[in-house]
Amino acid sequence: MNIDRNSGWYRWYVVVLLLLVFILSYFDRFILSLVVEPIKEMMGLSDFQIGLLLGPAFSIFHVAVAIPLGLLADRWSRKWLLIVGLVIWCTMTTMSGFAMSFLPLLIFRLGLGLGEAVVSPCSVSIISDYFKRGERARAISLYMAGPYLGAGMAFLAGGVLVSALHDVGDVELFGHMFAPWQMTFLMVGAPGILFALLLMTIKEPPKTDTIAANAEGGSKISAVRYMLDRWKGFGVLFAGATCNFAMATLTFWNVPLFSRVYGWDVMTTGAVTGLFYFTAGPLGTALALWASKRLGRDGDMGGMYTLILGLCITVPMSALYPIMPTAQLAVVAMFIAFIGKSAATAGGPAALQMITPGEMRSRSVAIFNTVITLVGPLLGPPLIGAATDWSGDPRSIGVVLCGFVLFVGIPTILVMIFGLKHYRVLAKEMTVLTTAMDEKEAATAALGPKGAVA
Predict the structure, then answer these.
(1) Partners of residue 177 on adjacent β-strands
(2) Strand, coil or helix: 176
(3) How many CA atoms lie within 13 A of 111 on its CB side?
(4) Interior CA angle at 419 toward 418 and 420, to 5°?
(5) What average pLDDT does the segment 137-155 reach?
């Protein structure tokens, strides 16, 4: 059966399928945090080793390979690279269930980071080529619901799965006994096979918005050089996205905050946080879909306006919730902050695609993710922890969080508002270039093989 990849239903089918793959990647990434205690007890690990598994084992390797894999995605089939990455990370998740000591589990976490490094560069590039410039921001905004839905499912559905397997106890499989935490990894990694098969139904779209014909060096045009030559426009975008990622790292401090300031236990804080990922995340995506359509009527500015709107919501609410007089008021403010963060998360990649040539989309996303992943955490957890230690009062964490948000958030919003003109210039530049290329291709297609009108 021939499938019309230009049809509306098929293009949105691609977006939804890639969204589901994105959700699965975050589910696999977060599931380890739910089985830390039994792993620590069984393997006799220290908290430092657990910290390595939760953070650097995944993040550092993930960042290290992101840009080279983005370059490969711009030169090879993005669909097949995504399928290979999916098989690798799901295999690594499954193999984690066979680990009996720290080193194998560390290696499997490295493999997880390797496999998941292809997800956004390939997916965002594919989606961008399926949609026209005026529709692109909405499609990418829907796709960017993945991190919130995936993290929410890991906390909620993953928590139910871990609890159920704990009640069942050890299970004999393949002639070996598996502890509940090991069965968790086996069951979470298994769905990858189904998604790999579904990804085969996607047709690789031709790259759009290419400018190689207008650029000296053709397809060898450097993404880094292209961005550096236009550093003001890209810098404004990267500043906003990095700030939003720094706001997202506040979630790591939710358990200490609500425990020290409001007297909540870990289970209650975890349940509320997971519920917010699963509810406020989609609401933020819906806000992003609305904003990209209403605020960016010319089709070029929707993603950037959505990013700014999201930050204008999340910065004040993120500053307020840690210092609220009651836990109930803190939860309300945090819920609104989550909505803003979700909207801004969707706006960043959408805005990036409007100023990036088609032949370097995967690399641009990889560079984008590398910058915000490296800088965001450096701005967040270390500074907050050091400031709390310096205060000498663990309960001061609320004031420290508030101060951090104001220190980072307010200057960033001002930079984005006053620097918006630089981004607008790049967006218009891409519109002119792509329009010229489209007209050239149309004129070429109208001529016969000998230059006569067909």
Answers:
(1) 172
(2) strand
(3) 19
(4) 95
(5) 82
